[in-house]
Amino acid sequence: MAYKKRMSKREIEYWNRQREIRQSNFSDGEKNKEDLQGNIAIIIIVIVCLLCVFIGAICNPKTKVSGYYRSNGTYVEPYERKR
């Protein structure tokens, strides 16, 4: 069996400090990863919404404008621009 030297108080404090530093770095990395994933998800949702808006505008370029009724009951067609 290998002889294991008993660590001094200073060495124990040093290794405990190193362990704390490693654990805090790891947890910071995990947190940053989660934040990044959330940001990417939000960006993807925004892009999909914009795509839907543009596709809707391309597929249906003329939005229907309804006419109106005059007081005497006649229907007036909406004015449409000539293309």
Q: How would you characterize this protein structure?
A:
By secondary structure, the protein is mainly α. The protein has a domain at 8-53. 61% of the residues lie in helices and 5% in strands. Strands 1-2 form a two-stranded antiparallel ribbon.
Please supply descriptive tags for the structure shown above:
transmembrane helix, 2 strands, 1 helix, 83 residues, 61% helix, mainly alpha, transmembrane, membrane, two-stranded antiparallel ribbon
* Rounded Rg: 34 Å
Number of helices, counting only DSSP H or I runs of 4 residues or more: 1
Q: Can you write the helix and strand succession as a string? A: HEE
**Number of strand segments:** 2
- Approximately how much helix is present in the residues? 55-70%
Shape assignment: rod-shaped
Largest pleated sheet: 2 strands, antiparallel
Strand residues, percent: under 5%
Query: Could you list the spans in which at least 5 consecutive residues all have pLDDT below 50?
Result: none
Structural class: mainly alpha
What does the average pLDDT come to? 78
- Terminal CA distance reads 94 Å
Strand order of the largest sheet: 1-2
Keywords: Membrane, Transmembrane, Transmembrane helix
Transmembrane segments: 40-58
